[in-house]
Amino acid sequence: MASELSASDRPLRLAYLSYRSKPTVGGQGIYTRHLTKALVDLGHSVEVFSGQPYPVLDERIALNQLPSLDIFNDQYPGRFPAYWEIKSVADLLEIGTFSTGTFPEPLAFSYRAYNALKDRTNDFDIVHDNQCLGYGMLAIDKIIPTLVTLHHPITVDRRLEIAAAPNWRKRMSVSRWYSFVKMQGRVAQRMPRIVVVSDNSIDDIHNDMGVDRDRMRLVHVGVDPDLFKPMPEVTRIPGRLITTASADVEMKGLRFLLEAMAKLRTERDLTLTVIGRAKKGGKTEEIIERNGLADAIEFVSGVPDERIVELYAESELAVVPSLYEGFSLPAVEAMASSTPLVATSGGALPEVTGVDGETVLRCEPGDADSLAAALRRGLDDPELRAKLGPAGRERVSRLYTWRHTAVRTVDQYREVLALKEQARLSDTNRKQ
Question: Across the chain, what does the average pLDDT equal?
Answer without folding.
Answer: 92
